[in-house]
Records
---
Amino acid sequence: MTAGAACSKKRYRWKRPRQSHRKRQDPIQKAIKQAVLETLELAAQAGWVGLKYLDEAGFCLWSPVSYSDSPIGEQKRLEQTPQRYGNRISILGLWQPGQGFEYALAQGGFRGKSYIEVMDWSLRRRHKPWRRAGASR
């Protein structure tokens, strides 16, 4: 009997768990940051600032648990395991609604100097005069 069939008989489902960060969040800090975001969004709507949303995602070649059983209708969460070092790839995305999306890739992660380099690159790219392909100088 397969694991999926055994789980089905016990009213469990065989599926991938997701990583949970709920215990790491501070509700007070989250509320403060949400208020700051709402203020910035209002300033962007008024045209006072150009607001870009930034997110970093990392990928690596190992997976701690690929499948697990959980009661039907519930999702099992696993706390993130201690970081393992290896061939990790990170992508840093910058999205400005109505304007476009920019990204940078790095092996490892974005720290200090590399993060500042991406911010400078994005700023230089924004202020670079746009020329159409084939247009003369």
Note: The beta strands are 12-15, 18-20, 53-59, 68-71, 77-79, 89-96, 100-107.
---
Amino acid sequence: MSSKSEGVTTPAEFAPQVRARRMTPLGHGGLPQPLRPSREELSNGSLHTQFVEVQGVVTEARTGVLTLLMPGGSLRILVYDLNETAQCVAAEDALVRLRGVVGASWDPVSHRFKGGEVCMFAPEIIVDEAPPADLFALPPKRVPELLLFDPQASGVAASQDFRPSGAPAR
């Protein structure tokens, strides 16, 4: 549903917000296309309250917190919607996309950003590639092969899960 809003800006803890005085429904409409930012763009706070989609491998999942491995490094995401908690935990080691509104993570006392951490409000979690059922069933790779480009590596495979083969070094 799209709407026309009239209101005033008011201070908030991090950025100004609009306090609506009147909202007029205009009809049905779709959501805008999400931004697809890099890890660094997310971490610097400039996308506060923007609709985004991020993709990466879930390396840690617990109540209200996901750690996502994405190009550029790990990103800790504080998830503010308890309905998504079970889905977050089930997504561990999977290649996922999270789509929702992102917020800057900052210290309310010092007003400094917490680098490498953002908040997402009620994100949609889309599993693009399920985690391997058995990590020991992965194809074996020799250590020198890990340094070679692999055009088949994408998603979870790109996170360098492998089962080493060969004799241990002495």
Note: The first strand starts at residue 2 and ends at 10.
---
Amino acid sequence: MHHGIITTDADGRPQRPPGGEFIDRYVFPGGELANLPRLLTEIARCGLEATAVEDLRPHFARTLTLWGDRLEANRAGVTAAGGAERYRIWWVYLAGMAHAFERRRLSVVQIVACKPTAAGPAPASMDARASISAEHGLACVERLTAMRECRRQEIGSAAPAEPE
């Protein structure tokens, strides 16, 4: 299962989160967001089938607003624990991200993907999860592990060679 924030950019270019230098410096240094087609392509490249995709964007702006409200309501405790600067960083971040979700610049998706088995393709939807056998569930876990390794190897092959 993949659950993450994506860009709504139709061109598929990886993008930095909205907020530019502020986000890059204080919240997610080096962060990059993909779009949904890119995620689905990468899932397929690793031999998995996406069996369910759910867009959670309509709910997430409200979620971020509520988190910001809770942060503000607990300002004294948060400031005591992490400092005034950290409080301000997260207050601005939550407000800015809520705005980005409201304006449809970002979305949150949940993707369920599994490896097809000898018995046939992966289940067609989340409703089919009750019929997934333990064997099929294990195959999904094994394939997700292989997918992570596939990604690690890609990153490793792009890294500069170690000096001898």
Note: The longest strand covers residues 106-114.
